[in-house]
Amino acid sequence: MTSFKYSDENISAPVAYSSFDTMHSVAEIVLPFYSEDRSRAIIEEIWARTKEANDKFNRFDKGSPLALVNKMAAEEAVSVDDELFMVLEMCRVFCNSTDGYFDITANRVSRSASKGVKNFDLDGGSHTVRFAEPSVKLDLGGFAKGYALEKACNILKRENVTCALLNFGNSSIFALGAHPYGEYWPISVEHPYFRGKCAHTFELKDCALSISGKNGRGVEHIIDPATGDRVVRDEIVAVTGPSPMACEVLSTALYVAPREKRSDILARFKGYTASEIYCLANGTTKVFKVH
Amino acid sequence: MDKLLTRKEFLSNLGSMFAVGSAISLFPWLTSCTEKGQKEIEGEVAKLGIIGTGSRGQFHIANLLVDKSAKIVALCDDYEPHLQEAAAMVPDAKLYSDYHKLLDDKDVDGVIICTPLNLHSSMTIDSFRAGKHVFCEKSMAYTIKECQDAIAEWQRSGKVFVVGQQRLFDPKYIKAMELIHSGAIGEVVGVRNYWYRNNDWRREVPSPEFERRINWRLYNESSRGLMTELACHQLQNGSWAMDQYPECVTGMGSLRFWKDGREVFDNVACTYEYPNGVHMTFESIISNKHFGMGEFILGSEGTIDLVKGIMFSEQPAYRSGIEQFLMQIKQGILSNNAFAGSSWSQEDAATDPGIRFTDKIITTDGSSSTGASNDGSAELVHAFCHAVITGQQPDKIVKEAYYATVLALLGDQATHEKSTLYLQEEDKIL
Question: Closest approach of chain A CAs to the CA of B298, in angstroms?
């Protein structure tokens, strides 16, 4: 479902807002300063591109290319299109650069736990993917939102948009330029125990933010690739930096990684910062930078 | 608060909730609550006798004392302390210790019977035979046969008959049922009721010979325990929501904790099956109150919490993180919004706070065994006054009460037999 709203009541800052149900969540955009027609055209292109990514990377859709890979790649090399091949290559790179803490093969039942990139082979010549064993399954859930957000940003930049805010499911955000009435976009993390209460505020300008932690029901849902178990943490991990895709990967990887390893991993990604946010049941919050 | 004002608010609530005309077709017993119904009895009073002036009787007296359409002219109880307590509330009322004498009183137009369950039927029948209109507390009677006897006498009498199912007059239940019947939660697929307390359900007894009279709820000779005292209210929910009645019930019950000489179970669990395959549960434990009281209608597209007056969607609306920036920019301001966090997904439905569907909602935890304010009880006795004055029988109200009692009695039998029992064709009399 898509919604679109537009207001030119404020003549110095007309603004469009749109939301789009996708990736089992909702994507939103605030786009100031453009006419209604121009805003609508830009947003429609972004949602179309987002839908493409969703259709391609949704492992729950039996007809999706990723589902086909999951179904067949243990038995034979499965040919995939350029985009999916590139995404799988990127995921292998991210897996290596995060010491395996970001791993699209991580799942709770797999016997392939801890093998990381060795779980699947990519053949660059034939653009095929093949699994090392039958229990391997690929899950792009921790990657696709960041990827789609990256693509959306590229569209905005191509259109010379200099001010916009994109939000994919509250966990992946990109602030292009600054709020029309500020020096930045103020984006606050909501305290998980108190609806609407600010736990910590990020001041974003031309910057992405990705957050990993318990889901909205307070349930651990991120899998430790080394064990196949759900990762249990007290803290939320938030990562900021230029690329929404890298932020998404890093927030997941750092959440999974033990605290003592987080600095080393983060240091490999120039221009990115990470915070550990501890939200206590009494409403207080403690924030630690990962150095 | 003045009860008349409360009733005005009730009418106002009704009006704001939906067009009263359409409400009346769905809830015909509410006629007395309409403006037209109020005008019909303007300046007139129903002269009432109260039979049974214990806690529930006094609760009704308190409501009636602020109802301009009611005048309590007689009180009756064979337990002197209760009679004197009531007399202090209504000093002008005539006092009786034998209800037959009250029934002979020509000043009494209608009676309100608040006695132990095993006395309901005989007192109701005697009252009709004496030419009185009858309000009988729920449950309607101690056995299905006794219910049928009371109904047969009512039908012969031409008088009005109201039974104390106050949820029928509770604004949040009325609104909920209107939503359900309009399809707001899709198809009804389940009904869940529970009522938990942690108290011994006992009343203070001045000396042992009064034990069975005062604590009549605890003994099989006078009570069907949790099923007739608590379940009877909640079992109405499924039937009201689906406009049909269960075919059968299976149940379990035991005396687990309060082993103090009582005979009725202190925990029961029943499951009813409707002709359309829907199951309705009722559970009650009175040695743990953690869950309190709950009544839920489960639909294919949503859930209604009847007790709290909240509707939950199966696919709750996404709570936008950044839409508020739209308003800010329109107004030329910048402020902070707390929305970022772990990824929102459609499975987050369980944490959705739902939508309150009535204003000024008053909820009760079900801990009182006398009654709660604003639960429809005041409107219920007012409806009885209206019926007494006009002679008009509130439509459907006896049917609702009859099946609520029959379901409670069948459930009670099932818990004792640990069996599945069917609603018999010959018992479908209304």
Answer: 20
Are A290 and A211 in the same domain? yes
Residue B179 lies in a domain: no
Residue A93 and residue A188 in one domain: no
CATH number at residue A287: 3.10.520.10
Nearest Cα to Cα of residue B202 among B187, B194, B213: B213
pLDDT at B1 > cutoff 60: no
Judged by a CB distance cut-off of 8 A, whether residue A291 touches chain B is: no
Q: What is the mean pLDDT of chain B?
A: 88
Q: Same structural domain for residues A214 and A154?
A: no
Is B273 within a domain? yes
pTM of the model: 0.66
- The predicted-structure confidence for B19-68, as pLDDT tens digits, reads as follows 445 566 677 778 777 777 878 888 899 999 999 999 999 999 999 999 99
Helix, strand, coil abundance in chain B, percent, nearest 5: 45, 20, 40
Residue B85 Cα, gap to closest chain A Cα (Å): 48
- In a domain, residue A226? The reply is yes
Please indicate whether, in this complex, the C-beta atoms of B322 and A30 are within 8 angstroms of each other. yes
B92 and B218 share one domain: no
In a domain, B349, yes or no: yes
Residues A196, A289 within the same domain: yes
**Portion 10-29 of A in contact with B at CB < 8 A:** 10, 12-13, 15, 17, 19, 21, 24-26, 28-29
- Tell me the chain A residues in contact with residue B323 when contact means C-beta distances shorter than 8 Å: 5, 17, 19, 28, 30
From B315's Cα to the closest Cα of chain A, the distance in A is 11
CATH assignment of the domain containing B153: 3.40.50.720
DSSP β-bridge partners for residue B305: B296, B310
Name B321's Cβ contacts closer than 8 Å, sequence gap at least 6. Answer: A28, A167, A170, A173, B337, B339, B340
* Contacting residues of B for A21, CB less than 8 Å apart: 318
Please give the tally of structural domains in chain A. 3
Confidence band (pLDDT; 50, 70, 90) for B5?
A: very low
B83 lies in the same domain as B203? no
The answer to whether residue B176 sits within a structural domain is no
Number of domains in chain B: 2
Residue B160: domain span: 3-168+371-399
Q: What is the DSSP letter of B133?
A: E
> Would you tell me which residues 208-267 of chain A have a C-beta closer than 8 angstroms to some C-beta of chain B?
209, 211-218, 236, 238
CB nearest A215 (choices: B322, B337, B345): B345
